[in-house]
Amino acid sequence: MAESRAAIRYAKAVLSLATDNKVADAVNVDMKQIVSTIAGNADLNAMIQNPVIRSSDKKKVLFDVFSDANKATYNLIDTLVANKRIVLLHDVANKYNQLFDTLRDAQIAKVTTAIPLTKDLEEKVLAKVKELTGKTTEIKNVVDESILGGFILRVGDVQYDASIANKLNKLKREFTLN
Protein backbone atom coordinates (compact mmCIF):
# COMPACT_ATOMS: atom_id res chain seq x y z
CA MET A 1 0.00 0.00 0.00
CA ALA A 2 2.78 2.42 0.92
CA GLU A 3 4.54 1.62 -2.35
CA SER A 4 1.46 2.45 -4.40
CA ARG A 5 1.03 5.76 -2.57
CA ALA A 6 4.69 6.53 -3.25
CA ALA A 7 4.21 5.66 -6.93
CA ILE A 8 1.25 8.05 -7.12
CA ARG A 9 3.28 10.84 -5.49
CA TYR A 10 6.17 10.38 -7.92
CA ALA A 11 3.77 10.19 -10.88
CA LYS A 12 2.00 13.39 -9.81
CA ALA A 13 5.32 15.18 -9.41
CA VAL A 14 6.55 14.08 -12.84
CA LEU A 15 3.23 15.03 -14.45
CA SER A 16 3.33 18.44 -12.81
CA LEU A 17 6.89 19.10 -13.98
CA ALA A 18 6.19 17.75 -17.46
CA THR A 19 3.07 19.89 -17.77
CA ASP A 20 4.97 22.99 -16.62
CA ASN A 21 7.71 22.29 -19.18
CA LYS A 22 5.13 21.45 -21.89
CA VAL A 23 6.51 17.93 -22.43
CA ALA A 24 3.67 15.94 -20.81
CA ASP A 25 2.76 14.24 -24.11
CA ALA A 26 6.36 13.14 -24.77
CA VAL A 27 6.74 11.88 -21.20
CA ASN A 28 3.46 9.97 -21.55
CA VAL A 29 4.90 8.18 -24.59
CA ASP A 30 8.03 7.37 -22.55
CA MET A 31 5.94 6.05 -19.66
CA LYS A 32 3.92 3.81 -21.99
CA GLN A 33 7.19 2.48 -23.39
CA ILE A 34 8.53 1.87 -19.87
CA VAL A 35 5.39 -0.02 -18.85
CA SER A 36 5.37 -2.23 -21.94
CA THR A 37 9.13 -2.85 -21.88
CA ILE A 38 9.27 -3.82 -18.21
CA ALA A 39 6.13 -5.95 -18.47
CA GLY A 40 7.41 -7.67 -21.60
CA ASN A 41 10.97 -8.32 -20.45
CA ALA A 42 11.29 -10.61 -17.43
CA ASP A 43 15.07 -10.11 -17.24
CA LEU A 44 14.77 -6.32 -17.06
CA ASN A 45 12.05 -6.58 -14.42
CA ALA A 46 14.14 -9.04 -12.39
CA MET A 47 17.16 -6.72 -12.62
CA ILE A 48 15.12 -3.75 -11.36
CA GLN A 49 13.65 -5.78 -8.49
CA ASN A 50 16.97 -7.42 -7.48
CA PRO A 51 18.35 -5.78 -4.30
CA VAL A 52 21.83 -7.24 -4.89
CA ILE A 53 22.45 -5.29 -8.10
CA ARG A 54 23.91 -1.85 -7.43
CA SER A 55 21.67 1.13 -8.10
CA SER A 56 24.29 2.70 -10.36
CA ASP A 57 24.25 -0.41 -12.56
CA LYS A 58 20.44 -0.34 -12.73
CA LYS A 59 20.54 3.33 -13.67
CA LYS A 60 23.07 2.68 -16.46
CA VAL A 61 21.01 -0.19 -17.88
CA LEU A 62 17.78 1.84 -17.76
CA PHE A 63 19.44 4.83 -19.43
CA ASP A 64 20.73 2.49 -22.16
CA VAL A 65 17.37 0.77 -22.66
CA PHE A 66 15.43 4.06 -22.74
CA SER A 67 18.11 6.05 -24.57
CA ASP A 68 15.61 8.08 -26.60
CA ALA A 69 13.56 9.19 -23.58
CA ASN A 70 12.76 12.75 -22.60
CA LYS A 71 14.90 14.59 -20.05
CA ALA A 72 12.03 14.51 -17.52
CA THR A 73 11.97 10.71 -17.80
CA TYR A 74 15.72 10.54 -17.17
CA ASN A 75 15.24 12.79 -14.15
CA LEU A 76 12.56 10.44 -12.81
CA ILE A 77 14.85 7.42 -13.17
CA ASP A 78 17.68 9.37 -11.57
CA THR A 79 15.47 10.45 -8.65
CA LEU A 80 14.11 6.93 -8.09
CA VAL A 81 17.67 5.56 -8.06
CA ALA A 82 18.87 8.28 -5.67
CA ASN A 83 15.94 7.64 -3.31
CA LYS A 84 16.39 3.84 -3.54
CA ARG A 85 12.90 3.50 -5.04
CA ILE A 86 13.77 2.25 -8.54
CA VAL A 87 11.60 -0.83 -7.91
CA LEU A 88 8.63 1.55 -8.26
CA LEU A 89 9.49 2.54 -11.86
CA HIS A 90 6.83 0.33 -13.48
CA ASP A 91 4.15 1.47 -11.01
CA VAL A 92 5.10 5.14 -11.38
CA ALA A 93 4.93 4.89 -15.16
CA ASN A 94 1.55 3.17 -14.94
CA LYS A 95 0.17 5.81 -12.55
CA TYR A 96 1.54 8.58 -14.76
CA ASN A 97 -0.38 7.18 -17.74
CA GLN A 98 -3.58 7.02 -15.68
CA LEU A 99 -3.15 10.57 -14.35
CA PHE A 100 -2.30 11.85 -17.84
CA ASP A 101 -5.46 10.26 -19.28
CA THR A 102 -7.53 11.76 -16.46
CA LEU A 103 -5.98 15.19 -17.07
CA ARG A 104 -6.76 14.94 -20.80
CA ASP A 105 -10.26 13.59 -20.04
CA ALA A 106 -9.38 10.46 -21.98
CA GLN A 107 -9.99 6.80 -21.27
CA ILE A 108 -8.99 3.38 -22.52
CA ALA A 109 -11.61 1.00 -23.86
CA LYS A 110 -10.52 -2.62 -23.71
CA VAL A 111 -12.14 -4.68 -26.46
CA THR A 112 -11.67 -8.44 -26.26
CA THR A 113 -12.40 -10.28 -29.50
CA ALA A 114 -11.75 -13.73 -30.93
CA ILE A 115 -9.84 -12.21 -33.86
CA PRO A 116 -8.01 -8.84 -34.18
CA LEU A 117 -10.20 -5.80 -34.87
CA THR A 118 -10.10 -4.31 -38.35
CA LYS A 119 -9.47 -0.56 -38.67
CA ASP A 120 -13.05 -0.01 -39.82
CA LEU A 121 -14.52 -1.87 -36.85
CA GLU A 122 -12.12 -0.12 -34.46
CA GLU A 123 -13.33 3.28 -35.73
CA LYS A 124 -16.98 2.24 -35.23
CA VAL A 125 -16.26 1.10 -31.65
CA LEU A 126 -14.41 4.36 -30.93
CA ALA A 127 -17.32 6.42 -32.30
CA LYS A 128 -19.87 4.48 -30.22
CA VAL A 129 -17.84 4.72 -27.00
CA LYS A 130 -17.32 8.47 -27.53
CA GLU A 131 -21.06 8.87 -28.13
CA LEU A 132 -21.90 6.98 -24.93
CA THR A 133 -19.28 8.53 -22.64
CA GLY A 134 -18.45 11.86 -24.26
CA LYS A 135 -14.75 11.26 -23.62
CA THR A 136 -11.79 10.79 -25.91
CA THR A 137 -11.10 7.08 -26.03
CA GLU A 138 -8.21 4.87 -27.01
CA ILE A 139 -8.87 1.26 -28.02
CA LYS A 140 -6.84 -1.60 -26.62
CA ASN A 141 -7.68 -4.79 -28.52
CA VAL A 142 -7.10 -8.08 -26.72
CA VAL A 143 -7.45 -11.27 -28.73
CA ASP A 144 -8.92 -14.20 -26.79
CA GLU A 145 -10.06 -17.13 -28.94
CA SER A 146 -11.93 -18.69 -25.99
CA ILE A 147 -14.81 -16.20 -26.40
CA LEU A 148 -15.52 -17.90 -29.77
CA GLY A 149 -17.01 -14.76 -31.36
CA GLY A 150 -18.59 -11.42 -30.58
CA PHE A 151 -16.80 -9.08 -28.20
CA ILE A 152 -16.36 -7.93 -24.62
CA LEU A 153 -16.12 -4.15 -24.18
CA ARG A 154 -14.77 -2.70 -20.94
CA VAL A 155 -14.65 1.06 -20.36
CA GLY A 156 -13.63 2.02 -16.84
CA ASP A 157 -15.87 0.07 -14.45
CA VAL A 158 -18.51 -0.79 -17.05
CA GLN A 159 -18.36 -4.06 -18.99
CA TYR A 160 -20.59 -5.19 -21.84
CA ASP A 161 -20.24 -8.88 -22.72
CA ALA A 162 -21.59 -9.74 -26.16
CA SER A 163 -19.43 -12.82 -26.62
CA ILE A 164 -20.76 -16.11 -27.93
CA ALA A 165 -19.15 -17.93 -24.99
CA ASN A 166 -21.18 -15.77 -22.59
CA LYS A 167 -24.42 -16.43 -24.50
CA LEU A 168 -23.73 -20.18 -24.47
CA ASN A 169 -23.11 -20.05 -20.71
CA LYS A 170 -26.44 -18.23 -20.20
CA LEU A 171 -28.24 -20.91 -22.22
CA LYS A 172 -26.50 -23.63 -20.21
CA ARG A 173 -27.61 -22.01 -16.94
CA GLU A 174 -31.19 -21.72 -18.20
CA PHE A 175 -31.30 -25.42 -19.11
CA THR A 176 -29.84 -26.52 -15.79
CA LEU A 177 -32.32 -24.40 -13.80
CA ASN A 178 -35.35 -25.91 -15.56
UniProtKB/TrEMBL annotation:
Keyword ATP-binding applies: no
Which Pfam families does this chain map to?
A: OSCP
- The principal localisation class reads membrane
Cellular component GO terms, alphabetical: plasma membrane; proton-transporting ATP synthase complex
Keyword Transport appears in the UniProt entry? yes
Similarity field? Belongs to the ATPase delta chain family.
Cross-referenced NCBIfam families? ATP_synt_delta (TIGR01145)
Briefly state the protein's biological role: F(1)F(0) ATP synthase produces ATP from ADP in the presence of a proton or sodium gradient. F-type ATPases consist of two structural domains, F(1) containing the extramembraneous catalytic core and F(0) containing the membrane proton channel, linked together by a central stalk and a peripheral stalk. During catalysis, ATP synthesis in the catalytic domain of F(1) is coupled via a rotary mechanism of the central stalk subunits to proton translocation.
Protein name, UniProt field: ATP synthase subunit delta
The organism named in the record is Winogradskyella aurantia
